[in-house]
Amino acid sequence: MNDIIYWVWLSQKNGPGHSDAIRLLQYFPGGAREIYEATNEQLLACKDCSMAFIRRLMNRDLKEAERILEFCFINGIRVVSCASENYPKRLRSLYNKPVVLYIRGMIEDLDDRFCVSIVGTRNMSDYGKHMTFSLARQLISYGAVIISGAAYGIDSTANNTAVFMDEPSVAVLGSGVNVPYPAKNKELLDKIAAKGMVISEYEPNTPPYSHNFPLRNRIISGLSDAVVVVECALKSGALITARYAADQGRRVYAVPGNVGAPGSIGPNSLIRDGAKLVMRCEDIIEDFEDRFNLEQLDRIISSEKYLRYEYNHSIPVRNENKPMTRDGVKIVRASATAARKENIGEKHPDEATPRRTQRSPRIVEKQGGPSVTVKHESDISQNAESAADKKEKIYAMTDDNQRLVLDAMPSGTEVTIDQLAKTGLSTNMILSSLTMLELFSAVESLPGGLYKKLI
Questions:
Q1: Where exactly are the structural domains of the chain?
Q2: CA 308 to CA 108: how far, in whole Å?
Q3: Is 387-453 in the same CATH topology as 110-321?
Q4: Residue 240 to residues 101, 172, 235: CA-CA distances in angstroms?
Q5: Which of the following CATH numbers is that of domain 110-321: 1.10.1740.10, 3.40.190.10, 3.40.50.300, 3.40.50.450?
Q6: Radius of gyration of the chain (CA)
């Protein structure tokens, strides 16, 4: 019997982003099937894993795993376990690597290709759009595979550039591979899958929940040799990707921008903190010439599409990724889609943290005029979330390790990672927990490697 069903079962019990299953595999070298066939006593003897995870493993029903595999078979979705030779080599070293990947399409030589992820804000400026297309197009001309998340803005532009150049790219989703997000990017994702790969650790039909996206960012960085941040705010998914990249030993690059521009705050802060400034693709290429054959490809730089851009500056961007305007007012902080979701109190799936019901005013700028503030009517009537409710909500979203780290942090006192070693967790596990707690606004990272509890 094919062992893949046991890997799907193990992935379900582990959950995305957790490292329990990877640690458990050290006790069971035979893989997921050996874990499935282990006795309860053997499982309980594995002290490195949380008890909640061990208890879930004691339910050995395979019906859901069978349903998932049947759906994948019917719909042409590949299921690749972390034990498979087809599993991307770059992900193997991650301590919380996905147990299973669901994949549409294939790039057979991905492990041997130079892979660069380009990430950034949904609300890109014309400058960000130009730099994204320019860098992606130049990197592709050197044979690079572009990796991104296919979300609005910078991500879509990066992936769409590869489609425009008729070259493979990789889109990593925070939903099932058959659930396009945003929905209007279905055509783009179909084209990516036809030439490259659409990847997710979430089983098919998984909706794009907001908490999925920070976790998927570790896969974007993990698949890459280099991560380029173009435009983003100080608290954004792109900076989370950059942080994952640094933890994973990947090189981080940032495109500098106007000091006063909202989208330049994130990249400029990365440059201040040690990321390499990038103005042209050669700033990246020169760091990898000893690892890859990065000579320019004549078939791309001499192509009609390349020349069409060079002479006409016709950047291929889907309509929904263009700046939204209404009656001479340009929305700076939110797209029209996000604004509609704000009005009904929904969470926006591509945010690093869930939106709160009580919102800050949006800042808009009139074309040719000064910035103005637009307040939502609901801002006046809705009450702030109580501290107790917030704490209860955060505890419901976190796992055992995250709660252990949070409980070990005294309120109002700054602590270091070394001080949190008393939890008995490894440094990597503490860092991972702190990252997720920061996303939930439960912890704040401070200069000097300090962390402060906020609830």
A1: 4-105, 110-321, 325-381, 387-453
A2: 30
A3: no
A4: 21, 15, 8
A5: 3.40.50.450
A6: 22
At 256-265, the pLDDT tens digits run 999 888 899 9
120 touches 154 (CB < 8 A): yes
Show the tokens assigned to 2. Answer: 């094919």
Kindly list the distances between the CA atom of residue 67 and the CA atoms of 5, 62, 63, 270, 392, in Å, as whole numbers in the listed order. Answer: 10, 9, 6, 44, 34
Q: What was the pLDDT predicted at 444?
A: 81
Tokens of residue 58, six digits = 């004691």
Task: Output the pLDDT for position 437.
Answer: 79
Reported as half-sphere exposure (CB side, CA atoms, 13 A), residue 165 has a value of 33
User: What is the chain's mean pLDDT, rounded?
Assistant: 82
Q: What's the CA gap between 439 and 448, in Å, rounded?
A: 19
Cross-strand pairs, 80: 101
**pLDDT, average across residues 46-50:** 88
In CATH, the number for domain 387-453 is 1.10.10.10
Peptide bond into 98 cis (omega under 30): no
First to last CA, the chain: 50
Count the alpha carbons within 13 Å of 191 in the hemisphere toward its beta carbon: 15
Q: What is this structure's pTM?
A: 0.71
Rounded CA gap, 126 and 132, in Å?
10
Say which residues have a Cβ less than 8 Å from residue 104's Cβ, sequence separation at least 6: 76, 77, 78, 177, 178, 189, 193, 197, 198
